[in-house]
Specification:
Length: 196
């Protein structure tokens, strides 16, 4: 395939194989899993793509070769999203998370948030100032799930239904004595795993 050719031209064989295994194959798996669930027309779907960032952390093949790889991977993701979003009865809300956090200290990811009901990008959203927690809030709203008061409102560029219920804090299911610290630990756990 084309990605093997790109990697072989840019990197030594052992490094190219490692980049393919650690970075590109997982993203490919995530795209296939995402595509497999789309025929069910879920209310919301999220696609997490850490591969380009993982590849960048060990890249030694020059900027042009890496740009070609990025272009190819993003083209595949774009084609998948175009097919998924073109269906009238398709998914209602999609979040795509591209993670550059590994190669830069305090690096910010990129999130594409699309909603069938439409969104009007605001300057605040276009400048990338939307917190990842706001995207989590948006997905909870799209799914019609209760929302914690610990989460901010969803991004203002889209219209959102109010949550069916609000809870003061996250905690263990059935644990009425959940503390704010437990909620902070939960959110920190999601951040460390790359979900927020």
């Amino acid at each position: 395939p084309e990605e093997r050719r790109l990697l072989a031209a840019a990197l030594p064989r052992d490094v190219a194989a490692a980049v393919l295994d650690r970075a590109l194959l997982p993203d490919r798996f995530y795209r296939r899993a995402f595509a497999a669930l789309l025929p069910a027309a879920p209310r919301a779907a999220a696609l997490y793509l850490p591969g380009l960032d993982i590849a960048a952390s060990d890249w030694r093949g020059g900027g042009v070769a890496f740009a070609d790889l990025v272009r190819r991977e993003l083209r595949e993701t774009d084609a998948l999203l175009a097919a998924a979003l073109a269906r009238e009865s398709g998914v209602g809300t999609v979040a795509v998370v591209i993670d550059p956090g590994r190669r830069r200290l305090d690096g910010e990811g990129r999130i594409l948030l699309w909603r069938r009901g439409g969104c009007v990008p605001s300057k605040r959203v276009l400048n990338g100032t939307t917190a990842p927690e706001a995207v989590a809030s948006a997905l909870l709203r799209a799914l019609g799930l209760p929302q914690s008061d610990e989460l901010p409102a969803p991004p203002p560029a889209c219209s959102w239904e109010p949550p069916p219920a609000r809870v003061a804090t996250y905690g263990t299911p059935g644990d009425r004595g959940a503390t704010t610290r437990q909620g902070e630990e939960y959110l920190e756990g999601l951040r460390s795993l790359g979900y927020l």
